[in-house]
Write a structure and sequence with these properties.
The complex is a heterodimer of chains A (360) and B (223).
Chain A (H helix, E strand, L loop, with lengths): L1 H13 L11 H20 L7 H12 L10 H32 L12 H15 L9 H25 L5 H25 L4 H9 L7 H20 L1 H6 L4 H6 L4 H23 L5 H13 L3 H25 L8 H24 L1
Chain B lengths: L1 E2 L6 H8 L10 E2 L2 E2 L5 H7 E4 L11 H6 L17 H11 L15 H15 L3 E5 L7 H14 L6 E5 L3 H7 L2 E6 L2 E7 H4 L2 H8 L3 H13 L2
Parallel strand pairs in B: 1-7, 4-5, 5-6
Antiparallel strand pairs in B: 2-3, 7-8
Helix pairs in contact in B: 4-5
The chains are: A mainly alpha (360), B alpha/beta (223).
Amino acid sequence: MLSRLLRFYEVTMQDKRQLKREQFTPVTYLLLTVALFFTMVLCICIGSVRISFSDTVTAVWNAVWKLPIPENIAKNIILNVRLPRVLCVVLAGGALSICGAAMQGLLRNPLADGSTMGVSSGAALGAMIAIATGFTLPGFSFGGSMILAMVFAFGSLILILSLSYALDRSLSTGSIILIGVIFTMFISAIISLIITFASDHTRSLSFWTMGSFSGVNYDQVKILCAALVLCGAILFRFSPELNAFAIGEDNARHIGVNVKRVKLIILITVSVLIGVCVSIAGTVSFVGLIMPHIARMLVGPNHKRLLPASLFSGAIFLLLADLAARTLLSPVELPIGVVTSLVGAVAFVIIFYKTRKVRS
Amino acid sequence: MLAGPNGAGKSTLIETIAQGIPYTGSILWQDQDIHTLKPSQLARMIGVLSQRNNVSYAYSVEEVVGLGRYAHRAGLFSGKDDEGKGQVEKALEMTGLTDLRHASMLTLSGGETQRVFLAQVFAQNPQVLILDEPANHLDLKYQQHIFSLIRQWLQEPGRAVLSVVHDLSLARKYGTHAILMDHGKCISQGEISEVMTPDNLQQVYGMDVYEWMREMLSQWQEC
């Protein structure tokens, strides 16, 4: 896969005038779905307790069709621990990745995503305030943190864009990233302050800053699934508009795009999706930054292809990151945000360098 | 042709017509206030080619030209655009971009990029084309090429072009009517020969423009 990626990139760079775009055909979708399925099964199999491929498939298949599961299969581990976790990781990875793709398209900024723009930090702060103050919704134990995470995510996005606009009216890459980084540091300071004073909840609160899918349940899977289906459908519907933003907001308006309305819808959608992901798994950085670029190298920048490709690639990447987090230092589990940050930071520098090289 | 010195308000007027900046009063198109139109309805009537154009990410020439058809399939469920493919092909052919259709926009020169955006506006197929200094930042070859393409586009009945130009020679060569502006006001409007009189130009530019043009032309006549 990596050598194919590199070969594609080299060929593209050698013959710059003619784009050699990979075809994103139904067969490609099928192959990606199969790759995702196998990665999911692999992640269920591997862990502190090794489970065979056949046992995993049998347990899941029988559970879906309400058939009896053989006693020798570790069904509790598969169905109550690993499967909900794997499903959450897939959904969150896909969600963060399409949010990154949408933000990079909307803002014409290849370095835009929830983590670089401080949106994830804002969402984490909202969730943390909900937990620290005990804000909940009746009959919905994590509803309070989810609502506040979404509200703070949207508020953070608007604040960062407004500050960037005040600093530099062209909303350049540099100013948005600068404001985003400063904002993230500011929010981190506030989060540290909350953790310091909320000593009873310290352990549960500190994971927001590092990310973790440990202990997720099927209720959270359902909510994440619903959010991804709804928000993903909205973002996919606005693929033509996201493509139009590539020629600039003024030109997008000239060709008939209702720029203000589209921007608002996409920003709200992205905030909701990032808010839901952060409320369940904390801050997982760099997925939304890196994976759209990988997807763009494979299928091109057209959002009709880019969004599905980002969804699949984000899901697979986060699955592998979660697997590494669980197994590298087993039985100690690393926060998943640490793994994605380690990989993502290096990839970030490479992408930044390549982006500037191509543009120059 | 829309002419006038820097700061006269030419680009502001164009952006106002394109609904890019707020304004008081009304802009009428065939007795209809265009402010009441949806962006897609306006785009089907008016196409705008800006001075400077660029594309983020490696879209192909064909994809960028195809964006011009957005207004014809806008809607919640993206309506069908039967003419779309034909209009895009015609636009690519008119602008000589057929061979470059699969090229990445990031690899094109300034002149080629401007041609792509011109093709996009052609594909949009509006009734009125608004050009904001279309030949700016282009060499002489591309300047001539762009204007001859626009002239070719104008041959179909029911079309009009409103172009901002700094070069008064271009205005006289390609324009039939003109609006001369200064400090946000219309000084004169009508046929080119009636608008671009020595007195009008002296009033607006504060210099003897005819003498200046004769001086420039004499540089070439000596060769």
